[in-house]
Amino acid sequence: MQDQKLEPIAPDEAVSLYLQDRENELANGTIKSYRHKLTRFVEWCDQEEIENLNTLSGRDILRFKQSRSNVLNSVSLKGQMDTLRSFIRWCESIDGVEQDLHNKVMSPTLSQGDRERDILIDSEIAKDILEHLSRFEYASLHHALLTLLWRCGARSGTVRSFDLRDYERENQRLEAKHRPETPLKNKKRGERLIALSSDVCQVLNDYIDHNREKVTNEPGRKPLLTTQFGRISKSTIRETCYRWTHPCQYNGGECPHSRDMDECQALNPPKKAPSLCPSSRSPHAWRRGAITHHLTEDVPIEVVSDRMNVSRDVLDQHYDRRSEEVKVEQRREYLSNI
């Protein structure tokens, strides 16, 4: 009886409608990524002569997964299947596939090494967090800190090292300086000028003018980011990153992990344990996500390398989490203009 309620729809039509439905809520880079991944699914359906998604089964999805596992590594395959699951769930909402079919979309289990390489802040999550802070904690320390981490893609130690004098309002830039008390990871090689956009400068200007704690325990220096005790600490940066990646902090109080908000230890953690939420992410995950986001938005890799102070080899190995399909389509766009 359930099948009788389904309305016939071709795979390519369903994908087109899905992307059109999501384009107002997702960044352009995310839509491009979804399009690349789902195009592979449409091509597979065409090869298998699946013309109507009403007939799609769990066994079909397994066969698609197996075909993709021959050309993708485990991290990319997981991204492929996670995107397909989201698409199938949407198809259920328009009566295009059988109900609960998305539960038959199985992603691979990643090894610990794969998980560590793949942990990053998704651009949409970062956008939601910063929009929430802009509305409810505008120009606060947390807002200024996370804005710099995301928009500059800098290491937490670099952001912590900034002094007031390193910020040039008129020229809209920050200067990263290696100093003995606040060293940069790459020391003198880490020194650089970081260009800022007008909206980032507006947040910094308002933070400095209205909310910055005018205290310091460092003779001759005035830190940019401060608490009542002086320069922001490494632990405060870490705890801020963990806290604001708890989904309940920015998505209207809903917990995706079905936890009781009154009893959740991630919200009321034991001392020094702010990362108990499965969704919480460290400062390094913010950096990895920012770098991947810049690359996905077609910022040249040489610009990202210089801005984030990371070599091309290290960037490729540890930070760039774009799938191979996104990379090849981006190269195609460049080549089409030659």
From TrEMBL:
<dbReference type="InterPro" id="IPR002104">
    <property type="entry name" value="Integrase_catalytic"/>
</dbReference>
<protein>
    <submittedName>
        <fullName>Tyrosine-type recombinase/integrase</fullName>
    </submittedName>
</protein>
<dbReference type="InterPro" id="IPR004107">
    <property type="entry name" value="Integrase_SAM-like_N"/>
</dbReference>
<feature type="domain" description="Core-binding (CB)">
    <location>
        <begin position="9"/>
        <end position="92"/>
    </location>
</feature>
<dbReference type="GO" id="GO:0003677">
    <property type="term" value="F:DNA binding"/>
</dbReference>
<dbReference type="InterPro" id="IPR010998">
    <property type="entry name" value="Integrase_recombinase_N"/>
</dbReference>
<keyword id="KW-0233">DNA recombination</keyword>
<keyword id="KW-0238">DNA-binding</keyword>
<dbReference type="InterPro" id="IPR013762">
    <property type="entry name" value="Integrase-like_cat_sf"/>
</dbReference>
<dbReference type="Pfam" id="PF02899">
    <property type="entry name" value="Phage_int_SAM_1"/>
</dbReference>
<feature type="domain" description="Tyr recombinase">
    <location>
        <begin position="115"/>
        <end position="332"/>
    </location>
</feature>
<dbReference type="InterPro" id="IPR011010">
    <property type="entry name" value="DNA_brk_join_enz"/>
</dbReference>
<keyword id="KW-0229">DNA integration</keyword>
<dbReference type="GO" id="GO:0015074">
    <property type="term" value="P:DNA integration"/>
</dbReference>
<dbReference type="InterPro" id="IPR050090">
    <property type="entry name" value="Tyrosine_recombinase_XerCD"/>
</dbReference>
<dbReference type="GO" id="GO:0006310">
    <property type="term" value="P:DNA recombination"/>
</dbReference>
<dbReference type="InterPro" id="IPR044068">
    <property type="entry name" value="CB"/>
</dbReference>
